[in-house]
């Protein structure tokens, strides 16, 4: 019997990341998932708590036929990202698939008006969405 492939999906507590993780799980993979919401949903948009936690995603991965392993990580912090890859390396010895899906959503992003009218704090969208993909790929290589 072949050894299951090992995957990491960043930002997998909800949405596309969770869906991708479940698709990999259906293939029998060991799927590591990261997110900022471990046991309790912490992300908000317009004052509403967004559903989805690592624990919920892990349970769904296991139910889909994979092995789910969650790691709480803020991908805006390079050291936390490095530690994710260190843990996977220690536990699995390899990583076969990396899906860079971590994202940052800010309430002001969906407010009316031009980007130039909004706070420069929105640059965090690039830090998480773009820069963290580069950092994760660096550590995966």
List the helices and strands and how they pair.
Elements (H helix, E strand, L loop, with lengths): L5 E4 L5 H12 L3 E6 L8 E2 L2 E2 L4 H10 L3 E6 L5 H15 L4 E3 L24 H17 L1
Parallel strand pairs: 1-2, 1-6, 2-5
Antiparallel strand pairs: 3-4
Summarize the structure in short:
With 141 residues, the protein is an alpha/beta fold. It contains four helices and six strands.
Task: Report on the architecture of this protein.
- With 141 residues, the protein is α/β, with parallel strands linked by helices.
- Helix content is 38%, strand content 16%.
- It contains 4 helices and 6 strands; from the N terminus they run βαβββαβαβα.
- It has helices spanning 15-26, 54-63, 78-92, 124-140, and strands spanning 6-9, 30-35, 44-45, 48-49, 67-72, 97-99.
- The protein has a 4-stranded parallel sheet, with helices on both faces. It has a two-stranded antiparallel ribbon with strand order 3-4.
- Helix 1 links the parallel strand 1 (6-9) and strand 2 (30-35).
- Helix 1 (15-26) runs parallel beside helix 2 (54-63) and helix 3 (78-92) runs parallel beside helix 4.
What helical percentage do the residues reach? 25-40%
Please compute the radius of gyration using only Cα atoms: 16 Å
Strand order of the largest sheet: 5-2-1-6
Q: Unreliable segments (pLDDT under 50, ≥5 consecutive)?
A: none
CATH superfamily: NAD(P)-binding Rossmann-like Domain
* Count of DSSP strands: 6
How many independent structural domains?
Answer: 1
Text of the CATH class: Alpha Beta
């Amino acid at each position: 019997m072949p050894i299951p492939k090992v995957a990491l999906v960043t930002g997998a507590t909800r949405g596309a990341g969770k869906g991708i993780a479940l698709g990999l799980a259906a293939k029998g993979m060991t799927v590591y998932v990261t997110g900022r919401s471990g046991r309790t949903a912490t992300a908000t948009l317009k004052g509403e708590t967004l559903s989805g936690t690592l624990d919920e995603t892990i349970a769904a991965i296991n139910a889909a036929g994979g092995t789910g392993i969650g790691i709480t990580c803020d991908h805006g912090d390079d050291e936390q990202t490095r530690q994710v890859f260190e843990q996977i390396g220690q536990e699995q010895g390899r990583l076969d698939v990396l899906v860079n899906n971590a994202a940052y959503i800010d309430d002001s992003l969906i407010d009316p008006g031009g980007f130039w009218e909004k706070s420069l704090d929105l640059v965090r969208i690039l830090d998480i969405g773009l820069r963290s993909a580069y950092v994760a790929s660096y550590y995966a290589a």
